[in-house]
Write a structure and sequence with these properties.
Length: about 525
């Protein structure tokens, strides 16, 4: 007996002792009915601390002792008057009723405590599964919860996918059942019903099998070894099934999320494939036709063409070839950056070197001489994929040269803004309508200009370059945005973080310090 039980018995003995002392002390001053009230009070107090059977027995002994000590004739168990006999009978019945009420109250309190414990266990188990990335990893936790609740040995079988035809390659088993128990687990999994005692199916089995049910599917089973002989089996069965069903629901949600993720990746892959096909079938035709026409003229009529004509055709081949190369590179980079797990070839790079290299490349083109650049002095090194950042700037500058007047400059600036490297490209073109300032960054979208251009119709390209630019910026955890200039034209702002994730900014900001 624990210390709490000892103290309960001590309180009961103390209440009876005080009652008997009081009755002997007040015997000459009170009649039998009032003395009997003291006994009823003592019985009620002791019933609070004593077990039910002890209250019943002690109440009967106390009534007999009351008859012996106080009811005439004293020191005998006989009763002379009918009213005294009625008093004793009523006293015994009242004491027993009090004991019965206390027994019922304790039973209700224990049931309420058990219900509260079950609800707390279900809530805690539900919270565990809700926060789980992979519920399969909690198969051992389910086994521990069931074992703690029942005290029986538990085996848990959990499916790794929706395929319940095979319980070998697609399942995880926690525990060591024998051959018969493995057959029971497989049957419970396939049927989706509880088996064993108190289940209505195969009641003769010594063990109990509970399915892990989701919505219209069973994704596992739990085996409770020897649970047939548990005294509270019928009361625990709904609670145990609820625990198993929570696991089944979590598994189903996990499988649905995995299928949704796979379907999303496949849809993204299909969209990328369709984009590539659209670019090849539509946007590659113009430069290919130009190249084929110029090459055919040089091949078939080269001897009859003047030097200027041959140079013009050759220049057209070079320009369209460069355009085709840029379109191919943009499309391939877009496909790579749209992949679910893209990896960049990052290193500590110098903004001065990247801007200088892209400036030299652009100025080799026919209209590249009007590109001007300014780099803020003493910029720190920043963590990036230099090839991708160069492609981003190349696309923005090419876009500015294409849409701005032939005599208007295109400006490239690099500066430091807080912990970001700010790269801006501005032009003096017609600008882009406000409704298109976000759409132009989508694949195969070409924005509407704010002004009409009286020059020859501009070839607006494939609609891939700006989408690639934003994808490159976001792959570096940066952002590319567009706003219109007050004096006309567009201003592209690209913010790239100086630090890479988990990287430290070097102590020096001199490009030569890079390894």
């Amino acid at each position: 007996m624990d210390s709490g039980g000892v103290w309960r018995y001590r309180f009961a003995i103390l209440s009876w002792t005080i009652a008997w002392v009081s009755m002997f002390a007040l015997e000459e001053k009170l009649d039998l009915a009032n003395l009997a009230m003291l006994m009823v009070l003592a019985s009620a107090l002791s019933a609070i601390w004593l077990p039910g059977w002890a209250s019943v027995v002690i109440s009967a002994i106390a009534v007999s002792a009351f008859n012996w000590s106080f009811v005439p004739p004293k020191l005998e168990f006989s009763v002379d008057l009918y009213q005294n006999a009625l008093l004793l009978i009523a006293l015994l019945l009242v004491n027993w009723i009090i004991a019965g009420l206390m027994i019922r109250q304790r039973s209700l309190a224990e049931a309420a405590h058990a219900l509260a414990s079950s609800e707390a266990r279900l809530r805690q188990w539900g919270d565990t599964l809700r926060d789980a990335n992979d519920p399969i990893e909690h198969a051992s936790a389910l086994r521990a919860v069931l074992k703690e609740t029942t005290g029986a040995e538990v085996v848990v079988l959990v499916m790794r996918s929706y395929d319940v035809r095979s319980c070998d390659a697609t399942s995880l088993q926690v525990g060591e059942p024998n051959n018969e128990q493995e057959s029971g687990l497989s049957l419970c999994l396939k049927e989706g019903y509880a088996l064993g005692a108190s289940s209505g199916r195969y009641e003769h089995l010594p063990d109990v099998y509970l399915p892990l049910r989701g919505r219209c599917v069973t994704l596992g089973a739990a085996l409770l070894i020897g649970f047939r002989h548990h005294p509270d089996r019928k009361q625990l069965m709904p609670h145990l099934q609820a625990l198993c069903d929570q696991m089944g629901g979590a598994l189903q949600r996990s499988f649905i999320a995995a299928k949704e993720h796979l379907a999303r990746e496949q849809a993204q892959l299909q969209a990328t494939r369709n984009a590539l096909l659209a670019a090849i079938s539509h946007d590659y035709r113009t430069p290919l036709a130009t190249i084929m026409g110029a090459a055919s003229s040089l091949y078939q009529q080269g001897d009859r063409l003047s030097v200027n004509q041959r140079q013009r055709l050759a220049r057209g081949i070079v320009e369209e070839g460069e355009r085709l190369a840029r379109l191919t590179e943009n499309t391939l980079q877009l496909a790579r950056l749209d992949a679910p797990s893209v990896s960049l070839r990052c290193d500590w790079e110098s903004a001065e070197e990247i801007v200088g290299a892209i400036l030299r490349r652009v100025r080799n083109r026919g209209n590249g001489a009007r590109v001007t650049a300014w780099v803020e002095p003493n910029l720190p090194l920043f963590w990036c994929d230099a090839i991708l950042v160069s492609q981003l700037l190349d696309n923005l500058l090419d876009n500015g040269l294409k849409y701005s007047p032939d005599d208007a400059p295109v400006e490239l600036h690099a500066s430091l803004e807080s912990d970001n490297l700010l790269l801006t490209v501005s032009d003096r073109g017609p600008g882009i309508a406000p409704a298109w300032r976000e759409k132009v960054f989508e694949v195969f979208q070409r924005g509407d200009s704010l002004k009409s251009d009286s020059r020859r119709e501009i070839d607006r390209g494939a609609g891939v370059g700006l989408a690639v630019c934003r994808a490159i910026a976001r792959a570096h955890h940066g952002e590319l945005s567009l706003r219109s200039r007050r004096e006309g034209g567009c201003l592209f702002e690209c913010r790239l973080p100086i630090r890479g994730h988990g990287q430290q900014v070097p102590d020096t900001n001199v490009p030569e310090a890079r390894k």
